[in-house]
Amino acid sequence: MREEFLYYIWENRLTDKDLKTAEGETVEVVATGYRNTDSGPDFLEAKIQIGDKLWAGHVEIHVKSSDWNRHGHQKDKAYQNVILHVVYENDVQINDIPTLELKGHFDEALFNNYQRFILSKGWTPCEKSIAQVPVFTRLSWLDRMAVERLESKSETVAKTLETNQFDWEDALFKLLMHYFGLKVNNEAFEYLANILPFKTLLKHADNLVQVEAMLMGCAGFLEDDFTEEYPLLLKREFAVMKAKFNLLTMPEERWRFMRMRPSNFPTLRLAQMAQLIHKNGCLFSKIKAAKNTAEVKALFDVAASEYWETHWRFNRLPHCGSPTDHKTGAVGLSYHGSRKTAKHLGDATANILIINAVAPLLFCYGKLHKDESVCETAMQFLEDTEAEDNAIIRHYAQCGIKAENAMQTQALLHLYNMYCKRKRCLECRIGNVLLK
């Protein structure tokens, strides 16, 4: 027997009605109380009719009544207001505390089902049966998971805001930088965002060359002896900016190019970030004013400067028809003649930024300003964005749960990481239905 299963039985009133204390007095549960996830009794502010008296106070739950003394509750003042000790097996009488034994008073098949879930070796405990749950139940639980996901992400955003004096534009810049780097370079992008103040970039947002020079220079990409005019121009501009603002430079070795598609090279991403800042300036204020995802995507519709139409890295022209850059290890690096190609940010990247940066920041803004309409906008942006494609989402699809949009994929990611992997089936509405 497990305590968490007894919590589930108690909270959901899954016992029969013939309940009596160890002393033989009848027990009627008027109110189970609310679950306490901090230290102290398990359920607070319960109301229990014991015999002819109505008691108000707390309820403590254990597998065995002897756990009371084993856990040291008899010495803890927090447990002085416990009105009922609920146990699976009453092996020891605890003085002055009415004890209710649950053994034999609920359907043992429930526990057997729970044990099968907990001991399951499958990808998730319910992967073979989740599709049997009614659609309405699944969708309503996914809505709950999407909100939990946004709340969790907004807590991370709030920590950033606490350190930057609630500068929302700076917080957005840091979020965007993290996801510009994808998984391969996100730490390097985060580091750059921390050593290069967004306010400094914003002061020169009207000058694309200076913005790009600061991003590339602080990233360590302007240390070489260049032969081309554009990187030489950036290097000169960065020297001025570095002296003016006392800017730091990170080692170029922190950046990764190996086995990456050239369109994801950090040099190209930084050039696109420079255009994003140059085009929009205070981007968060414009995102707040956006009415739909189409307007947000229009803000992200930028292309790297002209130099990058023929380059992926400084001073390195792609080789005609070459499938692999042997110095970088990048695959698919083909280039035909002198053709120029505009390096746009791309719709897929815009979706990533909306899902992971825009929606969480808007949700956090709505929560902190107690503006439900902003929170609803954040969720609507997710609902209007295409579903993500990754291993977890594909596995749920194989189980019969196909996500229709990004709100549902975010919900499924949260469900898997926070419930399924941890086998929190008793706290999951889908798990509850399958247990019964």
Note down, in words, how this protein is organized.
- Helices cover 47% and strands 9% of the residues.
- It is built from 17 helices and 6 strands.
- Strands 1, 2, 3, 4, 5 and 6 form a 6-stranded mixed beta sheet that branches.
- The longest helix has 29 residues, at 135-163.
Topology summary:
Elements: H1 3-11, E1 27-31, E2 34-35, E3 43-50, E4 53-64, H2 67-70, E5 82-89, E6 99-101, H3 108-118, H4 135-163, H5 168-180, H6 182-195, H7 198-203, H8 208-218, H9 229-245, H10 266-280, H11 283-289, H12 293-299, H13 347-368, H14 372-383, H15 391-398, H16 406-420, H17 429-435
Parallel strand pairs: 4-5, 5-6
Antiparallel strand pairs: 1-3, 2-3, 3-4
Helix pairs in contact: 4-13, 4-16, 5-6, 5-13, 8-9, 8-10, 13-14
Helix content: 40-55%
Write down the overall mean pLDDT. Answer: 90
Number of strands: 6
Largest sheet: 6 strands, mixed
User: What is the molecular shape?
Assistant: elongated
End-to-end gap: 17 Å
Unreliable runs, pLDDT <50, ≥5 residues?
319-337
Strand content: 5-15%
User: What is the string of SSEs from the N terminus onward?
Assistant: HEEEEHEEHHHHHHHHHHHHHHH
Computed over alpha carbons, the radius of gyration is: 29 Å
Please identify the structural class as seen in this structure. alpha/beta
Note the total helix count: 17
